[in-house]
Amino acid sequence: MPKKAIKFPTDPKTGKKSRTTPNPLPGLETAAAAQGCSGRPPRHLPPEKHIPALQNALLDWFAVHQRALPWRNSYTPYEVWISEVMLQQTQMERGVRYFIRWMERFPDIAALAAAHEEDVLRMWEGLGYYSRARHILAAARKIMAEHNGIFPRDPAAIRALPGVGPYTAGAIASIAFEKKLPCVDANVERVVSRIFDVDSPVKQEPAAGVIHQWALRLVPEGKARAHNQAMMELGALVCRKKPCCASCPLGAFCISHHLGIEDQRPVPGKRATVTPVNAVTGVLRRGEKIFVQKRPASGVWGNLWEFPGGRVEEGESPEQAVVREFMEETGFTVNVAARHGIIRHGYTTYRLTLHCFGLDLAAPGKDCTPETCPAPPVLTAATQYRWASPQELEDLAMPAAHRKLADSLFSQPGQTAGASTMPRQGRLTDGTDTD
Ligand code: SF4
């Protein structure tokens, strides 16, 4: 059988070929190979020449295999927007749980815009990247003020909302309003890089631009909603890190699969360095009340409430560090009264090891109460403080590691974490939390 040369696709923007390496696996079309996840389709259809067929195959597959997700009931722009922002850096199952809870609390843009930031952050607690929640609130207020409470349809107006980047704008405009725009998330990046065999790191140029151009070219006129969701769904369910090509509706069109190099696509970029952080925090009690402080608006965990603490410095023990940190951040002299264990938590590119302590004031004074003493703290790392009861802690938005500590100390046995009532002494198990 004569060998057929593979014509590699060209960049739709520059007209240049996207790869030049020869086909390493010619003559793949065997019946036996059409079995299992690595099976090859009997015939390869170069994707750039069969775009309508590719689009139809994808849409047919999506019609049958799409998951029932709550925002797919009505596709209101508000629901599409919140779901898209929530699902960034969040697993689907977790995102759905948060979405349902959010919609019960803030059923529309007006309800969200009228909410206190504290309530919005509390509903976001555990999703991380808290600036997203603050931006959502600011955007809702802007929609009320400048768009009469109606979500804008124009992509430029959507993009002008606080916190809305190109991906989110494309997702809302295409999924809610059927605008012909692509949504290039990590799933779509993987699918497109494999179908068109993009052979350089996908997060960098020129690959990022090539992927965006192909993703745009694939969007069928008038069917952006179904198509973009189908691309994302295919990446989530079939074209995963380890793809199941035998189940893929696009197997016949996929160059990487045809070449047998799908596991080499997408080409990764440089991995972000993970920085370990060794830190301490302390729970200072006065009677039934616990000292907490509110972080500044800017920076990590902005406007969230926390137990004071900070990094362990070189040559310092965690016990020494928590005493020093309390003095520096509040002016309080404290003693370590209990060890509450270690929390390990991942956020952005940091891996936090948080040593947790119970603290007493070193010299509380006779007949001291939270209302009368100690003297007010001198805050150097916070904008507000409170002596809060365990019940009041429940209503404050806290970083995940601090919420975990609070739950371990104040939740009743058998109670749902976060539904604290009376304080009890607890000890954390050493676990890892990566949200
Ligand atoms: S798109 Fe993904 S799952 Fe489908 S054939 Fe290509 S590599 Fe396989």
From TrEMBL:
The main enzyme category here is hydrolase
**Reaction catalysed by this chain?**
Hydrolyzes free adenine bases from 7,8-dihydro-8-oxoguanine:adenine mismatched double-stranded DNA, leaving an apurinic site
Disordered, as annotated region: 1-42, 408-435
Keyword Methyltransferase among record annotations: no
Query: Membrane-spanning regions, if any?
Result: none
Q: Name one Pfam family in it.
A: HHH
Output compositional bias ranges, type Polar residues: 409-423
Q: What residues does the Nudix hydrolase domain cover?
A: 275-411
Q: Which UniProt keywords apply?
A: 4Fe-4S, DNA damage, DNA repair, Glycosidase, Hydrolase, Iron, Iron-sulfur, Metal-binding
Q: Which domain of life is it from?
A: Bacteria
Q: Which SMART domains match?
A: ENDO3c
Q: Which CDD domains does this entry report, sorted A to Z? A: ENDO3c, NUDIX_MutT_NudA_like
Q: Which InterPro entries match?
A: A/G_AdeGlyc_MutY (IPR005760), DNA_glycosylase (IPR011257), Endonuclease-III-like_CS2 (IPR004036), HhH-GPD_domain (IPR003265), HhH_base_excis_C (IPR023170), HhH_motif (IPR000445), MIG/MutY (IPR044298), MutY_C (IPR029119)
The UniProt record lists the keyword Iron:
yes
E.C. numbers: 3.2.2.31
Q: Which cofactor does it need?
A: [4Fe-4S] cluster
Q: What is stated as this protein's family in its record?
A: Belongs to the Nth/MutY family.
Q: What is this protein's function?
A: Adenine glycosylase active on G-A mispairs. MutY also corrects error-prone DNA synthesis past GO lesions which are due to the oxidatively damaged form of guanine: 7,8-dihydro-8-oxoguanine (8-oxo-dGTP).
Report what the protein is called.
Answer: Adenine DNA glycosylase
Say which species the protein is native to: Desulfovibrio falkowii
Lineage, uppermost ranks: Bacteria, Pseudomonadati, Thermodesulfobacteriota, Desulfovibrionia, Desulfovibrionales
